Amino acid sequence: MFERLLEGVCLLLMVSLALVVVGGVLFRKAGAPLVWYDEVASVILAWLTYYGSCLAALRHAHIGFPKLVQSVGPEFRLPLLVLREVFVIGFFALAAWAGWRVVVVLDGFSMVSLPWVSRQFTDSVIPISAILFIVAELLSFPELLHGRNTAGDEAQ
């Protein structure tokens, strides 16, 4: 269910990005450029990157070193996997905290081209995606422990 949610969010963001960019180009060609489409497209692309990384984490498709873990003896695999998870989850917990601090600081700021859109809304992707990344790591960790091959492991 979590994977389907992330897939839906990423699909919605990709379609939205395509519509905004194509619409912006068409309006510009028609001689009536949209003043907001560059900024909105940048925000959507950032959101797609952050939420897409959560989906990649769930599928073990992010950058990793599965061959390194496979090359060590079985007695070292579990400690290496646990250490990896501690570092990754620790990093994203820190990112969530720092992202939340940024969102708090942005109170009262808005987008340049759309002043009614709060920067807190646009930048909330940082703490939200960091928490989702942690959830993805926790959900996929049992598969990693059992040594099941995933799309990311096969590609590397």
Describe the structure.
This protein is an all-alpha fold and 156 residues long. It has one domain. Helix content is 76%, strand content 0%. Helix 1 runs antiparallel to helix 2, helix 2 runs parallel beside helix 6 and helix 4 runs antiparallel to helix 6. The longest helix has 32 residues. It is elongated. The two termini are 26 Å apart. The C terminus is likely disordered.
Feature tags:
single chain; 156 residues; mainly alpha
Record the SSE blueprint.
Blueprint: H1 2-29, H2 37-58, H3 66-71, H4 74-105, H5 119-123, H6 125-145, H7 151-155
Helix pairs in contact: 1-2, 2-6, 4-6
Short summary of the structure?
This protein is mainly alpha-helical.
**Which percent bin holds the helix content?**
over 70%
Total helical segments: 7
Distance between the termini: 26 Å
Percent in strands: under 5%
User: Low-confidence stretches at least 5 residues in length (pLDDT < 50)?
Assistant: 149-156
**Rg value:** 19 Å
